[in-house]
Amino acid sequence: MIERPITDWLPLTMKEVEKRGWDEVDIVLVSGDAYVDHPAFGTAVIGRIMESEGFRVAIIAQPNWKDDLRDFKKFGKPKYFFGVTAGCMDSMVNHYTANKRLRSNDSYTPGGEAGFRPDYATIVYTNILKELYPDVPVLLGGIEASLRRVTHYDYWQDQLMPSILVDARADMLVYGMGEQPLREILKLARKGVPFSSMRNINQVAFLHDGNAELRDYNNWSTVELASHEECLRDKIKYAANFKIVEVESNKWQANRITQQVGDQILVINPPFKTMDEAEIDKSFDLPYTRLPHPKYKKRGTIPAYEMIKFSVNMHRGCFGGCSFCTISAHQGKFIASRSEKSVLKEVDEITKHPEFKGYISDLGGPSANMYKMKGKDESICARCQSPSCIHPVICSNLDTSHKPLTELYRKVDANPNIKKAFVGSGVRYDLLVDDFNKNNEDGNHDEYMEQLTTRHVSGRLKVAPEHTSDDTLRIMRKPSFKYFKLFKKKYDQIQEKHNLKQPLIPYFISSHPGCEEQDMANLAAETKDLGFQLEQVQDFTPTPMTVAEVIYYSGVHPYTLKPVKTAKTRDEKQAQNRYFFWYKPEYKDWIRNRLHKLNRPDLVERLLGSPKKENAGKSKFTGNYSGKKKR
To answer: pLDDT value at position 534?
Structure first.
């Protein structure tokens, strides 16, 4: 393997800066992740965009925040600003399980080692920079900043926190996918415009002096939220705020949002319209090495990189609007799809990787099968305020044709250097069930399913029914479990037709708002009846800026303000979780006693059988659930 010159990566040290012949750095990016120069890693994307606009960029990756802070000082003062991100995950989700236990590993660190970023990394990094360089602006970005841009409930401290801008003392925040606002910020910064004057850019948030007039820009109307202090006093006002934030985040022609926080006003400008094909291609077609920085070689592999190094992300966004998921909150509900040309070019790049053996691990996206899907009449989308395009029913204006995706799969398959291209991302199965999705006009869903099942399943197919209770599923913004059964029937028929043995792996969540103990027992019975013996269930974690998080904290649904029961104590959560493991001997007596107390002998019979039958029979196959897509 030919060693690439170190200057192929953005610099991590002053030596690398000097090798480029620079006498100063324009922008310094500080990240909680190790630096992987790949389009799946936000710091690389942002850094390459800045480079493409002619800026000299350096990266401080996973700085030590406990010592003399030399990492933060190594590049000195940048000419324009610091950019700060916690990394590809919220640092608290990265650090702790749903039970608030400290995780023993970190997928974004060499060797998978934990302990290389602080809790609330965005706040910690920014405060350090503000102490060291008080006159240098700090711009926040990434999922942690994006989803904490307004008053939010923090599960780990069990309290409401103000916009992250308050505690971080940063100058501005970019929310969502940052390419469009970033390019605007860079143009103005080059002209010498200070951050304090960048007030008319879409998709940014900032704090404004409460005693100074807030000007109107771009003919935006303004919606005022209940203040942070009102939210602290009244949980219902906090819940009502969330509905406004979610609706405005998913509109093409959105309003500006303001919120009083102490003696300041938080201002959140409306988002940009979703990137078109040319714009998103531009981000993916930048000159990435697609490799981790060479400095990490002796420290071991970076697990997150190992997982995606032979994968292709074909689109962004998700129109599912699931109550527990942060994807649409961060990436938006409208799909930004890359061109075929851009995707096929990336596939070619992957085949040149020295370790490539002919197998693409994932042709996917947030939901694998939403590529090129959008409104048939965009003027209807422009007026839409719904957080989901497919709940409670699929919008009649949504083009759900799988034809472009099927054709792209075939073109990837035709590459002589590709032995197999798998779909590793979760598939949105409800789009493929005709009883739920009435938009299957030319039978293209069946063609897609045949192509997917026979050519692109790596041993098993991941789908996410999430629950079996219709009441819980409604709160989750997911379809009835009966549609999963119809999908499974269709999938099994294709398996049988082609003599394949590729099990379905369904994902489920316990302790979600609206889920009672009996619902979980029934879930276990329903999945057992379908032949599943699953090994893990995900315990619900209330993450910022989700409907489910608001319900968990406030006790009411933000759209109806009606009470919703949620399991909160450790005992309640463990009780829900245990039903999933009905086949484990150590839980059988507990399940029997518990269900008799709940007066559900029918579920005892379904889960455990009569005492004589308990040990007879086995399920058809087992499935291993080992972690859900980004939530």
So the answer is: 81
pTM of the model: 0.94
E-only strand ranges, 324-387? 336-337, 359-360, 362-364, 374-375
Q: What is the model's pLDDT at position 397?
A: 96
Alpha-carbon gap, residue 177 to 313, rounded angstroms: 14
- pLDDT score for 612: 52
Q: What is the dihedral of CA 545, 548, 552, 555, to 10 degrees?
A: 110
pLDDT of amino acid 619 = 41
- Whether residue 352 contacts residue 414, with contact meaning beta carbons closer than 8 Å, is answered with no
- Residues 96 and 150: beta-carbon distance below 8 Å: no
Quote the pLDDT of residue 313. Answer: 97
- What residue ranges of the chain have pLDDT lower than 70? 1-2, 610-631
In 3-state terms, what secondary structure has residue 14?
helix
Distance CA 447, CA 427 (A): 15
CA distance 133 to 145: 21
Does 384 show up as a binding residue in the annotation? no
* Beta carbons of 356 and 310 less than 8 angstroms apart: yes
Between CA 384 and CA 396 the distance in angstroms is 13
How long a stretch of residues is the chain?
631
Residue 532 neighbours by CB distance under 10 Å: 22
The pLDDT of residue 34 is: 98
Task: Taking the CA atoms of 316, 320, 326 and 332 in sequence, report the sign of the dihedral they define.
Answer: positive
Element (H, E) at 206: strand 204-209
On whether 88 is known to bind a ligand per the annotation, the reply is no
- The answer to the question of whether 515 is labelled as a binding residue is no
Map tokens 């938009």 to a residue. 439
Q: How far apart are CA 357 and CA 355, in angstroms?
A: 6
Among 166, 338, 319, 160, which Cα is nearest to 250's?
A: 319
Helices (H), 225-268: 228-233, 235-249
Distance between CA atoms of residues 580 and 521, nearest Å: 7
- Which tokens sit at 522? 């029934």
Dihedral Cα 437, 438, 444, 446, nearest 10 deg:
60
Instruction: Give the rounded distance of the alpha carbon of 162 from its chain centre.
Output: 22
User: What pLDDT is recorded for position 624?
Assistant: 39
Alpha carbon distance 448, 445 (integer Å): 5
